[in-house]
Fold:
Amino acid sequence: MSVAERVPFPAVVLPVSALLLAVAGWWALTVALALPPFLLPSPAAVAARLAGNPDLYLANAVETLRKILVGGAVGIAVGFSLALVVWAVPVLKRAIYPYLVAARVLPKIAVAPIFLIYFGVGFETAILFVAVIVFFPVVVGTAAGLDRTPEAHLDLLRSVDADPVRTFLAVRLPHALPDVFAGVKQSVTLAVVGAVVAEWILSNDGLGSLILVASENVQVDVMLAALAVLLSIGLLLYGGVALCYRAVAWD
Amino acid sequence: MIHVEDLSVAYGDLRALDDVSVDIEPGEFVTVVGPSGCGKTTLLRTIGGLESPTAGRVSVDGDPPEVAQADARLGFVFQDHTLLPWKTALENVTFLRRMAGKDPDPEGARELLATTGLDGFEDARPAELSGGMKQRVAIARAIHLGADVLLMDEPFGELDEITRDEMSVEILRLWRENRKTVVFVTHSVPEAVFLGDRCLVVAGSPASSGPAASTTGDGTPGRVVAEFDIDLPRPRDESVFGSEAFGRQVAQVRGALHDDA
Structure:
């Protein structure tokens, strides 16, 4: 039995201490070097920014979260459905699966300016962009997962002449879940990136936009405050997916 | 009754079985022994309708295996336990019966688990069970399915020897109590002799089983080279392993295997 298992709290205490130490170091740096706040504000100054105008951050956070959730849901739904189709139709799989895998190397961010030309600025364009970014890990994860069922399990079901749809739902899909969720976990991280980039290029609201405007005005404290909110959103979403997975996980 | 007549099975150019004929009576316990790659598993899988004959025919109570499959008359137990890792022992037992479209019988499943020594483990998941326990669940699943015929493909192959012996005694008890026809494939001669009413010795080496064979392509397809009635009194238990008659029968079967090799 390891130390962490015997005493539960050091597992939490160490990373939290490291975080506090880092924040303290940041603070000490701003004080010791007497850095001007417009270059590097102290943690207290950033916290004051957040506390001073919570509505601004909340309203923008809601905008960003909407893009992540709606775009993410669309991307996951389309990715999952396409993976089912590609998996079920071997000809399709051979024809397009290599490109789905290869498309992972393409920096999807680079297509945002193209979207701008075709679809213009707006919520819908941002959603589309987030969905495209989210789509790829889900489609690849799901397609890989559906092939994960051991042959012997399929033999077992064939030996009672089980209905293919029931076989799929009862055996193939559960066997695929770990890979599907691995894809979704990657997607959640990418969705946050996608939403911020969308707010730079494809819409004029949300935390990404706030950061961009603050940068033009050299308001580092605002930018850091917005980053802190983004970080919280990302962690919450990742945690949410991890919890969902734990509810259905078997591995 | 299982009827196998002039059965040949080939995968492309690879001939796995050649001209095998066997009849197995209802309630009979037949063991099939032979080295790895001799075609014994192919024979079992063809009886169970998982492989198709290239020539000859197989019937189960007069029907083709596909019909027997659809009626849930065939209960497979594989070397790999094939339990679903996300289901409990009880759910695994009832699962196959449900997939076969038969009426659920949760009470029957519970009783069966209890008689296979898994009382108190109904809600355990496969990861929490030992190798022997997992195979007990897999056997209970096949019996609970209501199959008349149990097709067992080296079910104890991955267990340690002590557990194997225990399981051998156990499977004989379950067979007595449930009156099934059993076809049991193994590469262990003592296991084949201990369990069977009759022991079929299969020999052969399909062309692709070794590097030399695959270049020359001269592998010999599997055939039944000998057949022994096992003359040991039933019910059999561990004491049989030490008996002189048992040793003599094992030596006979070994002899048949080596004659052919």
